[in-house]
Design goal:
With 706 residues, the protein is an alpha+beta fold. Helix 7 packs antiparallel against helix 20 and helix 20 runs antiparallel to helix 21. It contains 23 helices and 9 strands. It comes from Dactylosporangium cerinum. Belongs to the resistance-nodulation-cell division (RND) (TC 2.A.6) family. MmpL subfamily.
Length: 706
């Protein structure tokens, strides 16, 4: 940010105008935010896949776009009694009032201990239809003692997932804001200061929330509660990071000038390059999701990029205007005094920096061993969760599905749908019936124009399991001219799409980070080594998280979408700390003519800021675990562990040790130390306390909170 912009932000008139414009634009966003678009049948499915095309062809059949909820009646310890069967029949008649069409007679299990009643609902039926169905099923006193009744199937799973997010925006906002407030209070040890960044970032978060429907219109898919939750966490995490850096720099400048507006102008001018570079890298990395085939990934990428952009705007424009409008007393009781000590050469991180400087090879070897040990957790980590493994809490659709699987083919609650040419119906039925994993094939249905036929195929295993995936592949191989869809095929297609997105997006993210670091540092060796530390850090993070998820939380595997999103967030956010540390080290090396001295001073100056920001960011991501959905819990755990490793080990120990061992070769082909010979003024600035810092990361807020 240029000098003129910094001056405008911090002048009395400029600050007032910025705050007034912010309030006005925020109100405008709230008033003009459109409603979320209606759900489409193909939402969440990858474009062009067979499962998506089957959904698109549903209107050509009399059954239309319908879905089936399954009511499971079970007596665990004995066969169904006559009274049980009479109660099931009575319920079937009552359920006809909630169904689209007739409700067929109940299917009785071979062991006689369970019965199924299939209730057809409109494919676009609201979740209230499932609630009404459950009210009928659970009507008080209608069932004999010992007979249970529960609802499962696609609509029931969808309703339970939706219920898991009921009130999620408020829950996440309260939990995230509380975590940020506590950590800011601890960091600054001031009963007043933490309120300012929290209010500013919270306002930015609400603006982003109102912008998400526009994202849905732009990308073509609704932004659901999981997207809004992740974006909210990103806004709070990134925004708080930027606030920590800016306030740290502002506090330091207050020790050098009696005028707070002048101090803020210097702070904004010097902090902006690193903050803008960091935010720009995160935004570019998030936008690589536009190369994904899953619309949900593209939606998340655009929404999250907008969120980080708003966090940058509020952190670098609105926050300075708010702070400069308040007196120094906002830092009370640790108010920075004119002529106070320079914190960059004292404190814990200065001692850590000198310890790393004394034994860089030993420190690097120890850190490498620790990271390698954590990465061994990858050996027991598998990818892929069944539909019944998506929740951390007990839900009816899962318990009903488990009851169904004890007495019927597990896949009968969510069948495969096969569409073939009408003339090939008999051959298709014959080909599918003999396949391993297929339990039954229902009577075919002709399309309205008579050209197509639709087959319902029940699998022996539930949707989302490896056995169900294999069965879908066999059906597709046996019917190369057919379209194979339904929930099991949709789950398989989404996992295949995630695998494709992993192969495309991960290299793009690494390329974006590499190019940004090359341009920023004007170096080749340093960016390549930093990129290597990112990969090693990610492997250690997933390995450590895998151990926690399996052995502490009892989650057997990672969801298919978790590795990509975790990698994206860890790399994009982790590069922030690379930039904060290495740009400062480059400046110090240029000023002092020595990479070793520059890196030690940079680590002492930025260690506290990076640690504070990293711990806060990790805690904010962990907040995702308050929702009872496995995917968000896994992302929160992996990113939380990864950020802690990044801040406490990689950025503050591994990277400095590598730079100290390589010396001037770390910057090749650039030679920042050589600049000191032709820039005596840089050395003069460094001798006066290193106040001219492009990274804006001076200070150790955890220690010098005033």
């Amino acid at each position: 940010m240029g000098t003129r912009v910094a001056a405008a932000v911090t002048s009395r008139l400029g600050a007032v105008l910025i705050l007034l414009v912010t309030v006005g634009l925020t109100a405008l966003v709230f008033l003009t935010s459109p409603a979320q678009p209606d759900a489409e049948p193909g939402d969440g499915l990858p474009a062009g896949k067979q499962s998506t095309r089957v959904t698109e062809l549903a209107d050509r059949f009399a059954s239309g776009r319908t879905d089936v909820a399954v009511v499971v009646y079970e007596r665990r310890d004995a066969p169904l009694t006559d009274a049980d069967r009479a109660a099931v029949e009575q319920a079937r008649v009552a359920l006809a009032g909630t169904a689209t069409g007739q409700v067929p007679p109940a299917a009785i299990a071979e062991d006689g201990r369970a019965a199924l009643v299939a209730v057809t609902l409109a494919g676009d039926a609201p979740s209230s239809e499932v609630d009404r169905l459950r009210e009928v099923v659970h009507a008080g006193g209608a069932l004999p003692e010992g007979l249970s009744a529960q609802v499962t199937g696609g609509p029931a799973f969808g309703r339970d997932i939706s219920a898991a997010f009921d009130g999620a925006d408020v829950t996440l906002l309260i939990a995230t804001a509380s975590v940020v407030a506590v950590l800011l209070l601890i960091t600054y040890r001031s009963p007043l200061l933490w309120i300012v960044p929290l209010v500013v970032i919270g306002a930015g978060d609400q603006v982003v929330a109102k912008l998400l429907p526009w994202v849905a219109k732009l990308v073509g898919e609704r932004t659901d509660a999981s997207v809004s939750g992740i974006v909210s966490v990103l806004v709070f995490g990134a925004g708080t990071d930027y606030a920590l850096l800016l306030i740290s720099r502002y506090r330091e400048e207050l020790r050098h000038t009696p005028h707070r507006r002048e101090a803020m102008a210097v702070a904004v001018r010097n902090a902006a390059p690193a903050v803008v570079a960091s935010a720009g890298t995160v935004i570019l990395a998030l936008l690589t999701l536009l190369a994904a085939v899953l619309t949900a990934n593209r939606t998340l990428g655009v929404a999250a990029a907008i969120g980080v952009g708003v966090a940058l705007l509020f952190g670098l424009v609105v926050l300075p205007a708010a702070l400069v409008s308040l007196p120094r007393g906002i830092f009370w009781p640790f108010v920075p005094r004119l002529g106070g000590d320079d914190p960059t050469t004292k404190g814990v991180w200065s001692r850590v920096a000198h310890a790393v400087g004394r034994h860089p090879a030993r420190v690097l070897a120890g850190a490498a061993v620790a990271l390698a040990v954590l990465a061994t957790g990858l050996l027991g980590t598998s990818i892929g969760l069944a539909q019944t493994e998506q929740f951390r809490t007990e839900v009816e659709s899962v318990t009903a599905q488990e009851a169904l699987a004890r007495h019927f083919p597990a896949g009968s609650s969510q069948p495969v749908t096969v569409i073939v040419a009408a003339g090939a119906t008999d051959q298709a039925v014959a080909a599918v019936q003999g396949l391993a994993g297929v339990a039954a094939v229902a009577k075919p249905e002709r399309s309205d124009d008579g050209t197509l036929a639709k087959l319902r195929v029940d699998l022996r295993e539930a949707s989302g399991t490896a056995a169900a995936d294999d069965a879908v592949r066999r059906i597709r191989a046996a019917l190369p001219g057919a379209l194979v869809g339904g929930a099991p095929a949709g789950d398989l297609d989404k996992r295949d799409a995630y695998a494709r997105d992993n192969a495309v997006v991960v290299p793009l993210v690494l390329l974006v980070v590499l190019l940004v670091l090359v341009l920023l540092l004007r170096s080749v060796v340093a960016p390549l080594l930093l990129l290597l530390t990112v990969i090693v850090s990610f492997a250690a993070s997933v390995g450590a998280a895998g151990l926690v998820l399996r052995h502490v939380l009892g989650i057997p595997a990672l969801d298919a979408g978790v590795p990509l999103l975790s990698f994206l967030f860890l790399v994009a956010l982790g590069v922030d700390y690379n930039i904060f540390l290495v740009t400062r080290a480059r400046e110090e090396a240029a000023a002092r003519g020595d990479t070793r001295a520059g890196m030690i001073r940079a680590l002492g100056a930025t260690g506290g800021v990076i640690t504070s920001a990293g711990i806060l960011l990790a805690a904010v991501f962990t907040v995702l675990g308050v929702l009872p959905v496995i995917v968000l819990t896994q992302i929160g755990v992996i990113v939380g562990i990864g950020v802690v490793l990044d801040t406490l080990v990689v950025r503050t120990v591994v990277v400095p040790a590598i730079a100290l061992l390589l010396g001037e070769r770390f910057w090749w082909p650039a030679r920042p130390a050589a600049a000191s010979a032709s820039a005596p003024e840089a050395r003069h600035v460094a001798e006066e306390g290193g106040r001219h810092v492009a990274s804006g990361a001076s200070g150790v807020p955890g220690r010098h909170a005033g």
